[in-house]
């Protein structure tokens, strides 16, 4: 077991090595030790390729071209395919000139670092590429080269560690003590294979030397001694953030050890928010804390590590989509990061020029305005109900989606206002805690029922169409239609609708009135007057004159469970009070029962739901054809088998005993 564990540990590769191995596989057709490299078109940025990037041919949404280069540590041999030869092993100074860091080699010579990295020892140097030195501002470069024995030497020694460190040793979130005053170098090794050193990306890694290892990086790194909190305190354009952090007591967190990413809103970002909204959040400690925690990621994320979109969790418990578009970082798809990769001892800071307000800090009005129920917001506002959507009242808004109002908003009168009040439920709810049969109280003093189905969660006739949005005081449920709260029992509703006068008379004649008035959970497929008129007059007279048969037919139209239309996707079978099954299905957005189209769905009652149908449904036993779901008569089945076997037995004497036994069984059943 120990040997197996050691074998597995040896086989486990770091993310960087896994990506390098994939690049080797893609390049092997060009010869040994050839790696496929993706180059961002129009730039000098190159990446070893992982599987996803290989097929997408994109990095940060931009197209790439594939080139084939020698893998780290190898070189070409004239006349031979690929890169068959290992680079000559020499000291670090000589290696710098071979791996694309000649400028670092030059500055090592000028700063008198050369004797040390040529001599005996075991070192690791994170060597800036030639392009990295060239990208420094003239002022910075001048301050280094004008004082080579102190500034330049110290800068180079900060890029060094006094031991051999390979990429497998560069663990995410660790620090290495540099050779300049033991100041820490911050390492991040991301799952996508990117390795950063103080947020500089490792370009070419693991170049072995006789006295150590050389890793080429894409930036000249600088020492960092400030925490995230100290960066906030010293930056001029973070004044509002500074006050907000102090008010929410987050100072200690941002000073503590750890690895965080702060998406720091600038003063400009705060100024873009309506003053009323900003004052409300700043004056509400819980909302303010949620706002700030929404800007803090749980891990340090350097910009160089983001080569495609990824979802990251915030301290507030929500997620942000962090991505990139070319050279720009994006948050939730928007390029709002103004300044990136400000390194701190406990993480990294990116300045953002837009405030990211989480749902938990928003009013119901703000939640609805930015969603698929924005028309509902206007509707409630026009009805004079805005105070319920903007105040500190704990409520849940059942807001119909915009498609419900594609033909315009209904006229607002007293009845409509009362109906809208019944779309606001007392208490702040979460749909995941709702249960079947639960009763909800509305601001309009109505009681709404919850129905839980296999494929939907419904409140009365309306079903939840999207995930909840939970705000500071209220929760938003997006509903697929306007609610119609029940106004009475099934009998009350039928009596109030002139379309069902014949049905009401039939129910009374059959003695079923009390049944449909009592508390219950009925689904009633109610034949309209038109349905009864469609019956042959003689058949109708016969039915109405036979109370027992009439009751039997009417019970076939009633099921003892509530099924609203939103629960019907595939075929749903309900057991009727008569005993036979009712088959309910959806076809071309029309509900059908026993293949008959429903004229109107979801007429809600306090003890059930009513569907208007323009035909009288017939139980199977009442139909002339044989019922397909009745158990077969055993004697008849045996007779059929016996008849078939009798013919066969005449041709095959071995079957005669079987035939005789079947005849005997038939006689027993008949007897």
N/C terminus separation: 73 Å
CATH fold field value of the largest domain: FAS1 domain
Rg measurement, Å: 38 Å
CATH architecture of the largest domain: Roll
The total of beta strands comes to 35
Instruction: List segments where confidence is low: pLDDT < 50 over at least 5 consecutive residues.
Output: 1-10, 624-650
- CATH top level of the largest domain is Mainly Beta
Q: Widest sheet: strand order? A: 8-7-13-12-11-10-9
Whole-number mean pLDDT:
89
Helix content class:
25-40%
Q: Which class of secondary structure composition applies to the elements?
A: alpha+beta
Count of helix runs: 27
Query: Overall 3D geometry?
Result: elongated
Taking the sheet with the most strands, its summary is: 7 strands, mixed
Strand content: 25-35%
Domain EMI: 31-85
Domain FAS1: 89-221, 225-356, 360-483, 487-617
GO molecular function: cell adhesion molecule binding
Pfam families: Fasciclin
Describe this entry's structure for a reader.
By secondary structure, the chain is of the alpha+beta class. It has 6 domains: 71 residues, no CATH class; 129 residues, Roll (FAS1 domain); 126 residues, FAS1 domain, CATH 2.30.180.10; 118 residues, FAS1 domain, CATH 2.30.180; 124 residues, Roll (FAS1 domain), CATH 2.30.180.10; 28 residues, no CATH class. The chain is 33% helix and 25% strand. It contains 27 helices and 35 strands. The strands form 8 sheets. A 7-stranded mixed β-sheet has the order 8-7-13-12-11-10-9. A 7-stranded mixed β-sheet has the order 30-29-35-34-33-32-31. It has a 4-stranded antiparallel β-sheet with strand order 2-1-4-3. A hairpin with a 2-residue loop joins strand 17 and strand 18. Helix 4 packs antiparallel against helix 5, helix 5 crosses helix 9 and helix 26 packs antiparallel against helix 27. The radius of gyration is 38 Å and the shape is elongated. Binds to type I, II, and IV collagens. One of its GO terms (biological process) is cell adhesion. One of its GO terms (cellular component) is extracellular space. One of its GO terms (molecular function) is cell adhesion molecule binding. It is found in: Secreted, Extracellular space, Extracellular matrix.
């Amino acid at each position: 077991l120990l040997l197996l564990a050691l074998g597995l540990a040896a086989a486990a590769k770091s993310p960087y090595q896994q990506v390098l191995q994939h690049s080797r596989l893609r390049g092997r057709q060009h010869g040994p030790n050839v790696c496929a490299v993706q180059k961002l078109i129009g730039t000098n940025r190159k990446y070893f390729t992982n599987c996803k990037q290989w097929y997408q041919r994109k990095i940060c949404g931009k197209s790439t071209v594939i080139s084939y280069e020698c893998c780290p540590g190898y070189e070409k041999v004239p006349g031979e395919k690929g890169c068959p030869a290992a680079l000559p092993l020499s000291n670090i100074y000589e290696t710098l000139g071979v791996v694309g860091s000649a400028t670092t080699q030059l500055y090592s010579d000028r700063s008198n670092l050369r004797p040390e990295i040529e001599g005996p020892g075991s070192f690791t140097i994170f060597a800036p590429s030639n392009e990295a030195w060239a990208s420094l501002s003239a002022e910075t470069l001048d301050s280094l080269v004008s004082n080579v024995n102190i500034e330049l030497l110290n800068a180079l020694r900060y890029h060094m560690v006094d031991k051999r460190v390979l990429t497998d040793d560069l663990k995410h979130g660790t620090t290495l003590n540099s050779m300049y005053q033991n100041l820490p170098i911050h390492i991040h090794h991301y799952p996508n294979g990117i390795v950063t050193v103080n947020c500089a990306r490792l370009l070419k890694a693991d170049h072995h030397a006789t006295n150590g290892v050389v890793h080429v990086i894409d930036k000249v790194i600088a020492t960092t001694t400030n925490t995230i909190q100290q960066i906030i305190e010293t930056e001029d354009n973070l004044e509002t953030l500074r006050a907000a952090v102090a008010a929410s007591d987050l100072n200690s967190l941002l000073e503590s050890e750890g690895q965080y990413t702060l998406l720091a809103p600038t003063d400009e970002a705060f100024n873009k928010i309506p003053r009323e909204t900003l004052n409300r959040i700043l004056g509400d400690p819980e909302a303010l804390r949620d706002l700030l925690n929404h800007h803090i990621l749980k891990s340090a994320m350097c910009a160089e590590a983001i080569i495609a979109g990824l979802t990251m969790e915030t301290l507030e418990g929500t997620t942000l989509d962090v991505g990139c578009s070319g050279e720009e970082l994006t948050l939730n798809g928007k390029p709002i990061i103004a300044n990136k990769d400000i390194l701190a001892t406990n993480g990294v800071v990116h300045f953002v020029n837009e405030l990211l307000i989480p749902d938990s800090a928003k009013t119901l009005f703000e939640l609805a305005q930015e969603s698929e129920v924005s028309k509902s917001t206007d509707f409630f506002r026009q009805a004079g109900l805005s105070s319920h959507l903007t105040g500190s009242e704990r409520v849940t808004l059942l807001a119909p989606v915009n498609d419900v109002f594609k033909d315009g908003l209904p006229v607002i009168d007293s009845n409509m206002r009362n109906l809208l009040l019944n779309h606001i439920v007392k208490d702040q709810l979460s749909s995941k805690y709702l249960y079947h049969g639960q009763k909800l109280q509305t601001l309009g003093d109505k009681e709404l029922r919850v129905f839980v189905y296999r494929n939907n969660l419904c409140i009365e006739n309306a079903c939840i169409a999207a995930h909840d949005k939970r705000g500071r005081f209220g929760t938003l449920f997006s509903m697929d239609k306007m609610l119609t709260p029940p106004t009475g029992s099934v009998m009350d509703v039928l009596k109030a609708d002139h379309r069902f006068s014949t049905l009401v008379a039939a129910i009374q004649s059959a003695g079923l009135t009390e049944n449909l008035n009592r508390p219950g959970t009925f689904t009633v497929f109610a034949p309209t007057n038109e349905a009864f008129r469609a019956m042959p007059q003689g058949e109708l007279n016969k039915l109405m004159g036979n109370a027992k048969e009439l009751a039997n037919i009417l019970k076939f139209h009633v099921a003892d469970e509530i099924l609203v239309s939103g629960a019907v996707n595939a075929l749903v079978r309900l057991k009727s009070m008569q005993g036979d099954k009712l088959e309910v299905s959806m076809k071309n957005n029309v509900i059908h029962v026993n293949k008959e189209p429903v004229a109107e769905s979801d007429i809600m009652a306090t003890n059930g739901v009513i569907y208007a149908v323009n035909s009288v449904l017939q139980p199977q036993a009442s139909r002339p054809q044989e019922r397909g779901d009745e158990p077969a008569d055993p004697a008849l089945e045996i007779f059929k088998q016996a008849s078939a076997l009798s013919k066969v037995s005449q041709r095959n004497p071995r079957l005669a005993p079987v035939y005789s036994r079947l005849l005997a069984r038939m006689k027993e059943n008949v007897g």
